[in-house]
Amino acid sequence: MKIITAQAPVNIAVIKYWGKKDENLIIPLNDSISGTLSMEHLCATTSIAFSNEFDSNRMWLNNVEVKIEDNKRLVRCIENVRKLAESTIGWPSDHHIRICSKNNFPTAAGLASSAAGYACLCYALCKLFEINDPKIISSLARLGSGSACRSIYGGIVRWIAGYDHQTSIARQVITENEWPEIRILVCVVNDHRKDTSSTFGMQLSCQTSPLIKYRAEHVVLEHCDQITKAIMERNFEKFAEITMKDSNQFHAICQDTYPPIRYMNDISWSIVNLIHFINNLFGYNVACYTFDAGPNACIYCLDNNVPILIKSIRRMFQKSDGTELAINGITYQTDQINIDQKLSDYIDIRKRMGDDLKYIISTRLGSGPKILSNQYDSNCLLSANGLPKN
Amino acid sequence: MKIITAQAPVNIAVIKYWGKKDENLIIPLNDSISGTLSMEHLCATTSIAFSNEFDSNRMWLNNVEVKIEDNKRLVRCIENVRKLAESTIGWPSDHHIRICSKNNFPTAAGLASSAAGYACLCYALCKLFEINDPKIISSLARLGSGSACRSIYGGIVRWIAGYDHQTSIARQVITENEWPEIRILVCVVNDHRKDTSSTFGMQLSCQTSPLIKYRAEHVVLEHCDQITKAIMERNFEKFAEITMKDSNQFHAICQDTYPPIRYMNDISWSIVNLIHFINNLFGYNVACYTFDAGPNACIYCLDNNVPILIKSIRRMFQKSDGTELAINGITYQTDQINIDQKLSDYIDIRKRMGDDLKYIISTRLGSGPKILSNQYDSNCLLSANGLPKN
Q1: Contact criterion met (CB < 8 Å) for A253 and B253
Q2: To probe the interface with A, which of B221, B256, B263 has the most A CB atoms within 10 Å?
Q3: Which among B218, B258, B265 has CB closest to A266?
Q4: What ipTM was reported for this prediction?
Q5: B58-61 vs B96-103, strand pairing mode
Q6: Contact criterion met (CB < 8 Å) for A272 and B253
Q7: Largest alpha-carbon pair distance within chain A?
Q8: Which of the listed CATH numbers 2.40.30.170, 3.40.50.300, 3.90.650.10, 3.30.230.10 matches domain A2-176?
Q9: Which pTM was predicted?
């Protein structure tokens, strides 16, 4: 009988992954780069128990049982670990696993939970079976959900597209401590529309967008090289520029898809325009935005600029009940912050009164996955009988 | 003393013009194709008087005097005609012109009025000076506003990019009578935002979009060839597909621009999605959308499908005062039209109650510019003293 509980982080890409060269192995068309967010504020937690007392493999996700055999990607991750375990502690056929997983953020937030979820699952499984090579863990996580391979490392991470299962893995660009001033504000949009799933969307883009191949072959590598250089030099100005350009081009590819895919709505665009207005007003890149397959804006900035951004966003997006937009995570004092008259005028004629944002998650870069415990303790999501605690 | 009054049509591109090879001569990056709309519903009207009794050239546009010398493009059109007139009736230095121009649609409609306006001005000027070659008139109109060169012909028109002033001209693909079933519904969006001007926008795209060159060099010619073939075969299915793809790609280029340019808002996208839903439901392309440098949707369809489209759009976009959305132009009986249950359900959960559309202009393809009169009559916008009538 073995038991392990692990935690893994969310990541937010600054150079976007969109499109696969190999649908089965999840080999992407191009490299991508992301920041790993601190697990203090956003993370997945997974407990896995392994015993000959269990009669079958079972899994629960956010308190709902998931039929493992119905999920091809889940099966593939588990089967790969079973094979790898042959050269470590082994997986006797009379032993089964129980998996219990949850996110500390509402799925309704529209944040990609699959990256943190699969990173956590594969990390915990590998650690359980004493498979410790992060390259192997990263490639396994990729089989679950492409961008999960990046959540295996902290700081800023690059997923090398590669050409097969072994070569398509993430590697760390810098640790979270090497650029400690970086902050991320996730603006969670109040939108009930169901977005096109990224798996389906990127397939459709590959099949129908005349521009996607040009992006993958001619633009993204240049973006990756430029942003890596900017990261190495802690050049936020350039980092921000490339991040915005790459996000915009990813959404351009979505629009070039047929039928067109659209993730950014009027609320998303009002944040885009606000950021460009502020950058223009200040004469340098105070912040940059990036959008994944949904309307939420992720803003990267340096810590000294968080207060003016929060104050501006709160003033732009007012709550109908008169309260201020909630900030979850790292809090800042904004009372002393003065909004420039031009910025104030800009916001006043564009402000939105309709509860367009739910809240802002204010966070920083963080580490890769970690083990919380190796026993049935308060961290563990499973009881000793192999069933979820609640 | 000579006097002429002419009318010229609006055109709506199905293959988009975006970006210039030569800013000065307005030579576009790529060919473009448009439908010329009937002047019954949308047109520019211009009267030009020519006499030695006038002490200077003067112009009025929609009842406001325009300083000709402040408008480089206007000066260029007039100077070119002056030179061409040397080989026709001549333009003695003691003769001056008076121009009075107006549109029969509100500028607030957000429809590109410059194409009709410059087409009308150049057509009237040329006719006044007995310059009759439509190739010359088309290239002159292009110097005023690129897409104006297409408004010199009726039906469906292709602007050949060319490489210099003489070769960059429009030519007719088919006349309006060769595909009489074509209808155009212009959905005028209620939006007070000031859009990025297309002149500035396309410059910025050329300077910053990594994708625009690929579009211009590799995609647009293919779109032009495919849609020309579809037009020749009266194949609306294919015509609609290419029209939507080209509009989407044009807006993708706008998003790939830095800072990104965005013309389509949530209202525009709700029309995009409605059209795709209807096409999907019916199993063929009932209609297609195309968007210029603004949020208004232009829908191309065949006449038999106008009623279902109008009924669907009216149900989707409700007026807050309970009245039905106004249709200007060709009217249709829609009482007998049944909306399929699936379409009805689709609309009901997405319908917008906020007066998002102002009205719909319902029109067809029409002819090129025409002379209304050669004398001071009721059509003439000028009095005999060379001043506007009102």
Answers
A1: no
A2: B256
A3: B265
A4: 0.94
A5: parallel
A6: no
A7: 71
A8: 3.30.230.10
A9: 0.96
